[in-house]
Amino acid sequence: AASAAVHDLGWRYLLGTFRCYVAVPSTAAALEVAGTALAACGAECDARLAVDIRADRVELGLADPGTGQVTARDAELARGITAALDERGYRTTAVADEGPRGVQLLEIAVDALDIPAVRPFWKAVLAYEDEPGGDGVVDPLRQGPAVWFQQMDAPRPQRNRIHFDLTVPHDEAQARVQAALDAGGVLVSDAAARSFWIVADREGNEVCVCTWQDRD
Questions:
Q1: Which pLDDT does position 98 carry in this prediction?
Q2: Model pTM?
């Protein structure tokens, strides 16, 4: 339902947030896009809206600050932002049709036998904070990738203990997997697709390409 609420607006649902970007020709235009989005959100912009400004791109994110998830209100704000930007000739999108890549979120997954024992280390060494509504740790500035912990039942010395989870728009995932395979990667497993595909480089280092789909 969350995905469907914003799909036609050019936004995508990733890891409990709504994400989109706007291609721009200059930093001045990027500031205009950011200002328009802030004005459309009104008093809620400080809590709900994330803005990443670059000279050629502005990336926008929406989520409820208390839960780290989206609500119907975030969908309303996405509609308002999209309409306001459209009036100024800007287009919200989430897939790589106007830039080098679409929106994505990166997580680092750490396999651990004793999660309570290792979690404080990662929180301290990265200067991270507790993930809202979750068991992982996140960058308080929301610049670095989130870290979450996967429970191990027994030591697995034959495989990597850290891997990347890359969450992409659901309608871009298979193309991203295919690009990785075309670049010399191998498909480790698609048993959990469309939730995630496991791919690896030639030496066995793994990445899970993830979407919101089939998570239940």
A1: 67
A2: 0.86
